[in-house]
Structures are given as structure tokens and as C-alpha cells.
Amino acid sequence: MKHAKLMTAAFGLALAGTIATGAQAAELVNYKIVDETIPQSLTGKPGDAAKGKKIVIHRKKGNCLACHVMPIPEQQFHGLTGTDLNGVGSRLDEATLRMRLVDPKVINDGTMMPSFYKTGQHRVLKKFIGKTILNAQEVEDIVAYLMTLK
Amino acid sequence: MNFKTITTAVALVGASIALAACQGTAGYEPNPYDSMDGGIWSGYKTASVETQAMQNDDFENPAMPWVDAAAELYDKADGEANVSCADCHGAPDDETGGLKHIPMKGVGASYPAFDPETNKPINIEMRINQCRTKYQKAKAYKYESDEMLGMTGLVAMQSRGMERVSTADFPDDKLNAFWKKGEEFYYQRRGQLDLACSNCHEDNPGNMIRAERLSQGQSNGFPTYRLKWQKPGSLHRRFRGCNKNIRAQPYGYGSDEYMNLETYLAWRGRGLPIEAVSVRK
User: Fold this and answer.
1) In this predicted model, what pLDDT tens digit does every residue of A7-27 receive, in sequence order?
2) SS3 for B279?
3) B15: part of which helix (H) or strand (E)?
4) Tens of pLDDT along B213-256?
5) Theoretical Cys-Cys bridge with B232: which of A26, A143, B61, B149, CB 3.0 to 4.6 Å?
6) Model confidence over A111-143: pLDDT tens digits?
């Protein structure tokens, strides 16, 4: 079991390694997957929850409200295709949330959720090739915000 | 199994239980469409009453100016051959199909068809241009031009209410190989958002993406007048819009990839009544 987990982590690293050959991939932080989580902050700095809240609303950044209900009543029309994120900070830990933002397919390969810190998807629109949806600090800011949803 | 693994496992199990418990909460109406007899449905069903009313009445349907203009072109001799569509096919609604006995009724319900000249699927737009260049010896219409949209609409609407037919899943159907490629396209994730058609239109039809209700992505209403576009648009324009929304590089109008997808979608929508020219938001 432990061996299998290590294999998964190794595969994750190998995947990150493959991606690192992409055009602008030098900018991608090399993260380590442990048991389907990413325990270490991508930036080494704590996230800013207030900024995180802005990013989850921003339609060209996190746009989390497209699919998830969140405790943000000032924004109308929360999507319903994803999990309700009320109380997610009590249900999941930081390392799991980070994994689910960076590349949720490591946990569930059938998920509809985009990988917010990944490049190399099939047929990416030219202006987004080699670019991640969010940068490392934005991922950390969202993690910090989600952890406040107790 | 170390402590960390157990914690993660417990957290994940907890999350899935919480997920199950949270469905349909937060003051939202339960999705009225997710139990729709498990069958297929047209985007008409989830359109607003006002939008449906526009589609129901040709005097209100904003696509009709394009169709009316095309009806004039249909009767007008064109090209070096100096013949009109009507010269060969009779009036658009002539069920005997005029001189050539090829009526327009039924075309919208059965296309794309296999084209023996190119050995590929051919849609109404391409068939119109084949007629123009080969028989009228006239210039082809541009794919998304007003003339093409109007003419496609005029042809497609002769099949209104007819059920879509497709046998492209039969191994001996000439469209079968293209149907298969279309199916692959449908299930392949693409774009920076890494989404396949199926993620939205098969797994979540009726569900909300913010204020938008996801459709089944059926093609029975095309060409469609989109209020957002303020004009009619082709199915391939919609494909391109969908692809760009998920930050994927779109394919060209009339490309092989989109023709395969169109062939596959027609099959998915078999049994749905043709609605051209439909109206959507």
C-alpha cells in the first residue's frame, strides 16, 4: 500500500517533469505529491484569503462560482455542477485542497474540474499555450480562502 | 498505511458524504430537467417562454429576414448555367421535388449525408455550394455569409417537425467511420479547461453553470438565431464558440473534424424534431 502510494507520487513527479519540457514551463513550480495531496505551499508563502475570495469570483481567473455554490451571497447565480463549498475548510485539509486546485485529476480522473496549475492539455487555444489558469500564488490565495469556509 | 494516508482517506470519505448531503441545498430549486425520462431533449425545452414564443411564430422569428432573402435567391437564375434552385427542385415546399424530383423536405432531418464525390460526410451548407459550383456554375457562398445562413435555414426548415434520422452507428453505413471519429472528438478533453463535450452535455445537461443552464448540445435547431449573436449562425459557429469558451483552439468552418462531430451529433439527436430556424438566447 505504501509502495503504491509512493509510486503515485513518483508518477505525479514524472508528470510534472514532462510538463516542465513545455515552452514556458520553467515558470511552473515543481511540487511534490504525497498520498494525493500537496503538503507544501507552492510559493513557500502563506496565501491571502481576501485576495483568494476575489479570485474565486473573477470569471477569467478561478471562476469557481461557475460550478460551485459558495457563501458569497453578494454574487448571483452560483453554478450547480460541482460540490457545494460551504464548510469545505472543515471537510478537507489544506494539502488536499491544494491538490484539488493544482490538478484534481490526480484524485479523480473523471472529474469535470479543470486543473488550475497545469499545462499541456490537448489543443489549447494559442494564446494560452504553456500557461496555467492560475499562478502559484493565486492557488495559495484560494487555498487560504477555502480554509476560512468552516 | 501511515497516519497521513488514513487521515487523507477519512477526509476523502467525509468529503464524498458531505457532497452527497449537499446536493440540492442552498435554497436552489431542484433541477427540473435531470429526471427528464432519461431521454433526449431539445434546447427549446429550457428556453424562456419569450424565446419559445419567438420561435413558434414566423412573424416573430428574427431569422426570417435571412430566410426570406434566401427564398428570393432560390428563385433567381444564377451562375454561368443561368439556372435557379427552383428550376431543378421546384418550390422549397414542393414535395415532389420539381424537375429533378429532389425535394427539400427531409433534407434537414437526414443530413449530414455521405458524399460519394469526396467520400466524406456533407452537410446542407456544403451541399448548397456543391449545387452552386457544379450545376449553377456560380460562386460558392462563404460558409457563414448571410446568403448561406438564409439558404441553409430555408432548406432545413422544410423538415420542421420531422424526426431526425441517422443510421451512422451501423457498421455498414458509409458514415460509420466518420461517426466513430466524431464520437472520439465528443469524448476527448481539450483546451486549457480540459473539458470534453460530454462533461457538460452528457454528464450535466439541465445543470447550471452560473446563470446558464447546460443543454444536451443537440443540433436539431440549426441554423439557429441566437439573440446573443443578433443573427442566425451555423452549427460550426456554435462549435467554435464552445471550443473557445473552454480555451481550446477551434477548427475551421466545414473542417473534417467538425463534419465528423456534426455526423455524430445528428446520431445522438435521432428522434428529435427538426426546429430550424430555432431561436435561442
Assistant:
1) 444 444 444 444 433 334 457
2) strand
3) helix B3-22
4) 999 999 999 999 999 999 999 999 999 999 999 999 999 999 99
5) B149
6) 999 999 999 999 999 999 999 999 999 999 999
Residue keyed to cell 496565501: A47
Question: Which residues in B have their CB inside 8 Å of a CB on A?
Answer: 1-2, 4-5, 7-8, 11-12, 14-15, 18-19, 22-23, 25-26, 28, 31, 188-195, 199-200, 203-204, 207-211, 214, 243-244, 247-249
Does the domain at residues A2-147 carry the CATH identifier 1.10.760.10? yes
Class of domain B64-159: mainly alpha
Q: Is B197 a catalytic residue?
A: no
The confidence score (pLDDT) of residue B249 equals 98
CATH class for domain B37-58+164-280?
A: mainly alpha
What would the grid cell of residue B55 be?
A: 420561435
Asked if A79's CB is within 8 angstroms of B210's CB, the reply is yes
Query: Which cell goes with A125?
Result: 487555444
> Within 13 Å of residue A127, how many CA atoms lie on the same side as its CB?
4
CB contact under 8 A, A96 and B244: no
Sign of the torsion angle spanned by Cα atoms B90, B95, B97, B101: negative
Mutate to test the interface with B, among A80, A131, A146 (most CBs of B within 10 A): A80
Shortest Cα distance, chain B CAs vs residue A48, angstroms: 24
Which residue ranges make up each domain of chain B?
A: 37-58+164-280, 64-159
Instruction: Decide if B248 and A124 are in contact by the 8 Å CB cutoff.
Output: yes
Instruction: Say whether B64-159 and B37-58+164-280 share the same fold.
Output: yes
d(CA B225, CA B233): 6
Residues 46-75 of A with CB under 8 A from B: 65-67, 69
Residue A27: which residues within 8 A CB-CB, separation 6 or more?
Answer: none
- What part of A 123-142 touches B (C-beta under 8 Å)? 123-126, 128, 131, 133
DSSP label of A100 = H
Kindly give the parts of chain B with pLDDT less than 50. 1-28, 35-36
